Amino acid sequence: KTLIRARPGGSRNAVAPWRSDPGDLYFPHWRRPDGQTGWALWKTEGTESCILTIDGTVAEAFDHLGRPVALPLQGNTARAELGEGILYLIGPTRVAVAR
CA distances (Å), 34 to each of 6, 8, 9, 19, 59, in order? Predict the structure, then answer.
């Protein structure tokens, strides 16, 4: 249900790298039928505090259960705990993930 909320039918995958090097951080994104970009961010093992650099507006941020996630921005950056539960962001045109 949460994935369908983030990536409704008719969404199209973006053609871009969606894995970090080393490959334990994932950040695929897609273009939704409403014109917004959706993002899914997670780490395969454990939890890590990461810095997100965000271009554009975050219309929604929610976890893999659909619960809202506070993402306090300082300018265009935010700190987020990434783990095995997916963090969905709706709206930004670009998200860069750094350790």
Answer: 11, 9, 11, 25, 12
Which helix (DSSP H) or strand (DSSP E) does residue 4 occupy? helix 2-6
CA dihedral 88, 96, 9, 36 (to 10 degrees): 100
Give the containing element (helix H, strand E) for 52.
Answer: strand 48-55
Give the phi and the psi of residue 6 in degrees, each rounded to 5: -80, -35
Report pLDDT digits (tens) over 36-58: 999 999 999 999 999 999 999 99
Length of the chain: 99
Considering the entire predicted model, what is its pTM?
0.94
